[in-house]
Write a structure and sequence with these properties.
mainly alpha, Succinate dehydrogenase subunit 7, mitochondrial, about 80 residues, SDH7, single chain, flat
Length: about 80
C-alpha cells in the first residue's frame, strides 16, 4: 500500500510547474537598442573576405550546363 502513495508523491514533484503570470508582462520582443561602434564595424563589408563570397549564380549555370551535357551523352548513347 505504501508504493502507490510514494509514486503519486513522486509524480507530483516531477510535474512541471504551471507558468507564472509574469511572462505576460514582458514584451515578446526586446527593446530596440542602437548598435555600438564595434557592432557596426563587424557588420561592414570586409575587403579581405570578398574573395570568399558565394558564387551561387555561377554554380547554377555550371550545373545547368552539366545537366545538358549529361542528357546529350545519354541521348547520343541510346540512339
Amino acid at each position: 500500500m505504501a508504493q502507490p502513495t510514494f509514486l503519486s508523491s513522486l509524480r507530483s514533484r516531477l510535474r512541471p510547474a504551471p507558468p507564472t503570470p509574469h511572462h505576460r508582462l514582458q514584451p515578446s520582443r526586446g527593446y530596440h537598442v542602437e548598435l555600438g561602434a564595434r557592432e557596426k564595424a563587424l557588420l561592414e563589408e570586409d575587403v579581405a573576405l570578398k574573395r570568399f563570397k558565394s558564387y551561387k549564380n555561377s554554380v547554377k549555370k555550371v550545373s545547368k550546363i552539366g545537366n545538358v551535357l549529361t542528357l546529350a551523352v545519354v541521348v547520343g548513347m541510346s540512339s
